[in-house]
Amino acid sequence: MPTDIQFKHELRKQLTELERRLELLENKEYDKLKKEYLKEIEDIQASLQD
Predict the structure, then answer these.
(1) Do 21 and 33 form a contact (C-beta atoms < 8 A)?
(2) Dist CA 28 CA 22 (whole Å)
(3) What's the CA gap between 5 and 13, in Å, rounded?
(4) S-S: 24 plus which of 10, 28, 29, 36, CB 3.0-4.6 Å?
(5) Is the dihedral of CA 22, 24, 27, 31 positive or negative?
(6) Tens of pLDDT along 1-50?
(7) At a CB cut-off of 8 Å and minimum separation 6, what does 21 contact?
């Protein structure tokens, strides 16, 4: 179970990532955003295989 500090740190990381992806979307950098999502999907699928 993560501590409150660890939990908040993870939330801040998620917030930063969401803000960055929103910026890509606003800048119409769709291909870059798509590549990032595909990489994340691939990583999750690989983790589920273990």
Answers:
(1) yes
(2) 10
(3) 12
(4) 29
(5) negative
(6) 789 999 999 999 999 999 999 999 999 999 999 999 999 999 999 999 97
(7) 33, 36
